[in-house]
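S.,

Sequence below, as promised.
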Amino acid sequence: MGANVGQMIDVLSVTPEVFPLIKTGGLGDVAGALPGALAAQDVRVRTLVPGYRTILKTLRQGRVAAKFDMLFGGSGRLIAGRAAGLELLVLDAPHLFDRAGGPYSGADGQDFDDNWARFGALGLVGAQIGGGLVEGYNPQIVHAHDWQGALAPVYMRYGGNGAAKSVLSVHNLAFQGQFSADVFSGLGLPQAAFSLEGMEFYGGVGFLKGGLTSADAIVTVSPTYAREITRTEAGMGLDGVLRSRLDDLYGFVNGIDTGVWDPATDAALEAQFSPALIKKREINRQALEARFSLEADGGPLIAVISRLTEQKGIDLLLDTADQIVGLPARLIVLGSGEATFEKGLLAVAAKHAGRVGVKIGYDEGLAHLMQGGADAILIPSRFEPCGLTQLYGLRYGAVPIVARVGGLNDTIIDANIAAVNAGVATGVQFWPVNGPSLLEAVARMVQLYKQPAIWRKLVRRGMKTDVSWRRSAEAYADLYRALIKGKTN
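The prediction came back faster than expected:
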C-alpha cells in the first residue's frame, strides 16, 4: 500500500556522494535518484554533502546558511544552493574537503588519515540541522547513508535536540568506518557513546556500528540482504547488533533513475531503441565489437561492468574465462580494482584476442553502450546488497546472469523451465557462488540465446520490468510517516 500522500515531509539526506556531482558507486546513484522519486510521495529532500571541489564548482545561487568557528580543526560554513536539480546543503570546510583525490582517498589510493574527522563533521552538522541549525528549516527525518553519514544518528542520540527521527541506510555492510580508540575524544561525544551499546567495536571506534545502535530505523537495499546480514556468515561482525534491531530493520530494493537510464533517449548509445525496436540493439553491439576489436561471429557477447575485487567474483571470472570463450561466447570487461585482477584480465584479453576485450578504468558512456549492446551482463558477486548493474541490464535488454545473493536474488527471476514456460523469467541465477556454477549459468544462457523466440521474449520481458524507484519510494515514504507518528512495524 502506498504512502498517504498529501502531508509534506521534509527529509535531510546525509551522504558522502550524490550523482551526478560525485559518485564512486551505487550509493551515489541512490542518493541522487531518491529525492526525485520521493517528490511524487510528497516528500521534500535536501541533501547534505561535503564541500568537495567538484561540488563547490557546480553549486548555483549559494547562500551561507550557517557558520562554524571551529569544526574538527578549522572553520567552516554551510552553503544552501542547487546543483543538477538537487536541493543541497554543502559543508564547506576547506581543511577537511578541499583536496585532490577522491572523496575518501588521495591520488595514491590511500585513505585520508583524517577520514574520521571529515565524516565525523558531516554527521555532526547533519544532527545539528536536524535540531534546527538552519533558520526556517526543520526536517522531520534525518536519513544518513553508510558509515560516512552514520554519526548523524549518533550525535542525535547522545546530544541532539528537536523532534527529528533518524534513518540509517546500509548500502554495503563491508564498509564500516573503523578507527582506533584514540579518535573518540576528538568526536566530542559523551563517554557513554563509547560503549557496547554505542560505537565501541572490538576496542576501537565503529562509525557504522554507532549508527546501527542509534538510528530509529535501519534500511538495507534489498529484503534478501536484510536477512543475510543478520547471520554470522554475512554479518561481518555486526550480525549480533542487527539481530538486536530486527524490529527496526527493513529491506527496500533500490531503483534506478529511468530518465538517465532510458535506451530510447540515451545519447551514449550508437542507436536508441525500445522493446518495439529491439533490432536496433544490433547497431550498439557492432559498435562494441569495433570498440573492443572483437570478431563478429564468436557467440553471444557478455559484458562485465564492475569493481575488480574478490567480492565481485572477479577471481571466478578469471578461473572460467577460457571455458566461457569455448562455449562459444565473447567477453568484454570494464572496471578497475585490485592490481592482480587487472593484470589477469589483460592477460586473458591478450590470450583470446578478438574474443575478449578489457578496458581498465571507468567510462560512464561506455558503460551505457555496453548495457545497450551486449547480449548479457554477468554479475558473479559473492555478496551484493542490492546491485544496480542488473537493473540497468534489464532496462537495456542485456540479460542478467547473477549469483543468487542479496538484491540480485530479489530482482532477477531465473530462466528455469517452469519460469520460461510461465513467461516470467528475466535472467539466469546461479548458486553456490563458485566457478563451476558460474560456468553452468553462462552455458545455460548460451543455450537460451540459440533459441531466438525464447531469447527475444526474455529480453523484452526484462525491458518491460519496472526497475524505477516508484515502489521503493512509496515504502520509504510509508516508513518516514510511521516514524513521525511513532508507529513502526
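Residues 115-130 form the longest helix (16 residues).

Coffee later?
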